[in-house]
C-alpha cells in the first residue's frame, strides 16, 4: 500500500489547509458556536467556491472526481481545525446519490451540492439498540413513492438542508430514501456543540435512492465510517500539535514542560496512535477503492483505531495542559469534545471490535 498522496490530493490538502487556517480561527469558531445554526455558512461558501465541497463528486456533475480519497483528505484538514461545517454528512449523502440515485436525483442535487447552493443531511442513526445496518424505521411502498415511519436520532446539522437522506427497512430489505418535505424535528445539541435533530418521520413521503434491498445502505455506511475516521485523525493530529506548542512555551522549574520525560512519553504515545490511525485509514480507503474482499474488515479496523486511539489522544492532550485543560473555552477542550463525539458515532470502539470479531468468525466458518 502506497500512503503517498497524489498531486491532486496534495493540492486538496494544501488548499483546504489555507482556507481553514484563514477562516476557522478560534474566535470565529466561538462566534459560530453561539449562532442560531452552529454552521459556518461563510466557510461553507468559501470551501464550495474553491471546489472542495465537490472534490469527491463526479466531474460530469461539477465535482473533481477524487472520490472518497479526496473527501477524506479534506476531512482530515477540517478535523485539525475543528471547523463547524457539515462536510462529512452532506458529501457522503451526495456520494450515495451519485452512485445509486436516478438521473433526476443526480441532476437536482449533485451539481448544486458541489457549488454550495444546496446541502443534504444524512440520517443513518437511531436510538439503541438499533444497529445502523438494520434500521427500525420502516418504509412502505405507495405507488412510485415510499411512506416512512419511525425516528432517526442525532441527525447532524439539518439546518439549511434541502433534503434528508434517510435509512429505513422495507419488506425487501434496508434502503436509502430521499425526503424532501418538512419533517418534524426535535432539536438536540451534541457534544461537539453542533445543533443536530431527532427526526420524527410520522409517515413522511420519500423517494428511494437505488433499489431497496441492494447494497446502497451498506456502501453508504462504509463511506460514512471511513469519513468519520478521517475527521478523527485530523482532530487527534490538531490536538497533538496544540499540546506540543503549549508545552514548548510553558515553563516549570526553569525549563519548558516539553523537556520533562513524563510529558514526552505521553506525547510520543499520542504520535504513535495518530500515525497508526492514519495508516489503517488509508488501508481501508485502498481496500474500498480496489473492491477488495477484506474491505469490510479494513473499515472496521480503521473505525476501531479512530474511536479508541482518537479518544485516547484527546484525553492525553487535554491532561497535559494541566489546569487550563479543563477550561471549556480553551481550544484543547473543543478537540476533546469532537474526539468524544466521533468516538461514539455508529456504536463506538466496543461495537467496532464486536463487529470485527463477528466478521472474522464468519469468515473462518465460511472457509
Report what the structure shows.
The protein is an alpha+beta fold and 367 residues long. The chain contains eleven helices and eleven strands. It has three domains: 7-118, Acyl-CoA dehydrogenase/oxidase, N-terminal domain (Butyryl-Coa Dehydrogenase, subunit A, domain 1), CATH 1.10.540.10; 122-209, Butyryl-CoA Dehydrogenase, subunit A, domain 2 (Beta Barrel), CATH 2.40.110; 216-366, Butyryl-CoA Dehydrogenase, subunit A, domain 3, CATH 1.20.140.10. 54% of the residues lie in helices and 15% in strands. A hairpin with a 2-residue loop joins strand 2 and strand 3. The longest helix is centred in the middle third of the chain and has 34 residues, at 216-249.
SSE diagram, text form:
Elements: H1 7-23, H2 26-33, H3 41-49, H4 67-81, H5 87-100, H6 103-115, E1 120-123, E2 138-142, E3 145-149, E4 151-155, E5 163-170, E6 173-179, E7 184-189, E8 195-200, E9 204-209, H7 216-249, E10 251-252, E11 255-256, H8 261-290, H9 295-319, H10 331-344, H11 348-366
Parallel strand pairs: 1-5
Antiparallel strand pairs: 2-3, 3-9, 4-8, 5-6, 6-9, 7-8, 10-11
Which structural traits does this protein have?
3 domains; single chain; Butyryl-CoA Dehydrogenase, subunit A, domain 2; 54% helix; 11 helices; Butyryl-CoA Dehydrogenase, subunit A, domain 3; three-stranded antiparallel β-sheet; 367 residues; alpha+beta; Butyryl-Coa Dehydrogenase, subunit A, domain 1; six-stranded mixed β-sheet; globular
